[in-house]
Amino acid sequence: MTASLLFFYLFAVLALVSALGMVLNTRNTVAAAMCLVVTMLALAGIYLLLDAYLIAALQVLVYAGAIVVLFVFVVMLLNLRSDAFPPSRQLASKGIVVLLGGFVLWRLVLLLPGMLPAQQPLPAGFGGYQAVALELFTRWVLPFEVASFLLLAAIVGAVVLAKRRLDSR
Amino acid sequence: MIPLEQVIALSAALFVIGLVGAVVRRNLIVILMSIELMLNAVNLALVGFSRAHAQQSGQIFVFMVIAVAAAEVAVGLGILISLFRNRDSMNVEDVSLLKW
Question: Which run of H or E residues covers position B11?
Answer without folding.
Answer: helix B4-24
